[in-house]
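Inverse folding, one chain.
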C-alpha cells in the first residue's frame, strides 16, 4: 500500500509495507488520490504517507474535533484524511497557494462525501490566518508548508487553537538532515530553529513522533 519507497527514512521498505498493511488501509477513494498524486512524478513526495493520514483521521476523531485548519494542502490527501475524522457538520479550512495542485484532490473529496466540510482558500497562509476573527477557534491544526515560515504559522495558530487542542507539524526530521551539521540549507536551518523553539515553549506540550518524516504533536495549554 502507498508509495513503493517508504517516506519514513528509518524504515526498510518491507517493514513500511507491513506497517501500512496492519493499519486501516487506504480505501479506493484514498488509493485513487494517492495514485493521481504519484502521476506528478517527484513532486509526489510532498504527499503525506498512508499511515500518517490514518493517524490524522484517528486523532481528529479522538479529539472530538469539529473544526480543523490545514496549512499546506498540496493535492488534498491530508485534507481528505482530516475531513474524514470530523463529524458531518465539521469544518476544515485548507490554506494553499496552488490552484493546480489542490484541483487534483477536489474530485476525491466529492467521492468521499466530505467536500462540504472543506473550505479551500488560495493565497499566502499567513494572510489567511491573520484575516481570521480572533474569536475563531479550532480543535486541530496541521502545518505542512514552506519550512521557513513554520515558526510564523505556529505563532499565528496559537491564538486560534482551543485549550487542549492540538497542532500537528510535518517533516520535523527532514529525512535526517536536522542532525547533519553539514546541511545548512535554508529549510533545514528553519526546521531546526522550529524544533528547538517549540520544545522549549511553555505554552505547549511537545512530543516528536517518528511517523513518516517526523511529526510533532503540540498540545496547547
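Residues assigned per position:
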Amino acid at each position: 500500500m502507498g508509495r513503493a519507497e517508504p517516506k519514513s527514512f528509518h524504515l526498510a521498505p518491507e517493514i513500511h509495507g507491513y506497517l501500512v498493511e496492519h493499519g486501516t488501509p487506504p480505501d479506493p477513494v484514498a488509493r485513487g488520490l494517492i495514485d493521481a498524486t504519484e502521476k506528478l512524478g517527484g513532486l509526489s513526495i510532498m504527499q503525506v504517507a498512508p499511515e500518517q493520514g490514518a493517524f490524522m483521521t484517528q486523532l481528529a476523531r479522538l479529539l472530538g474535533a469539529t473544526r480543523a485548519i490545514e496549512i499546506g494542502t498540496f493535492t488534498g490527501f491530508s485534507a481528505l484524511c482530516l475531513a474524514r475524522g470530523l463529524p458531518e457538520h465539521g469544518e476544515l479550512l485548507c490554506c494553499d497557494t496552488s490552484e493546480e495542485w489542490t484541483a487534483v484532490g477536489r474530485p476525491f473529496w466529492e467521492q468521499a462525501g466530505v467536500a462540504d466540510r472543506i473550505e479551500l482558500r488560495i493565497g499566502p497562509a499567513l494572510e489567511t490566518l491573520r484575516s481570521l476573527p480572533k474569536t475563531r477557534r479550532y480543535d486541530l491544526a496541521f502545518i505542512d508548508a514552506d519550512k521557513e515560515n513554520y515558526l510564523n504559522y505556529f505563532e499565528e495558530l496559537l491564538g486560534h487553537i482551543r485549550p487542549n487542542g492540538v497542532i500537528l507539524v510535518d517533516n520535523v526530521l527532514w529525512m535526517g538532515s536536522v542532525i547533519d551539521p553539514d546541511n545548512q540549507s535554508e529549510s533545514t536551518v528553519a526546521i531546526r530553529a522550529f524544533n528547538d523553539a517549540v520544545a522549549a515553549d511553555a505554552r505547549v506540550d511537545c512530543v516528536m513522533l517518528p511517523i513518516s518524516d517526523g511529526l510533532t504533536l503540540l498540545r496547547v495549554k
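The helical segments are 13-21, 28-38, 50-63, 77-84, 99-112, 125-131, 150-158, 186-199. The first strand starts at residue 67 and ends at 71.
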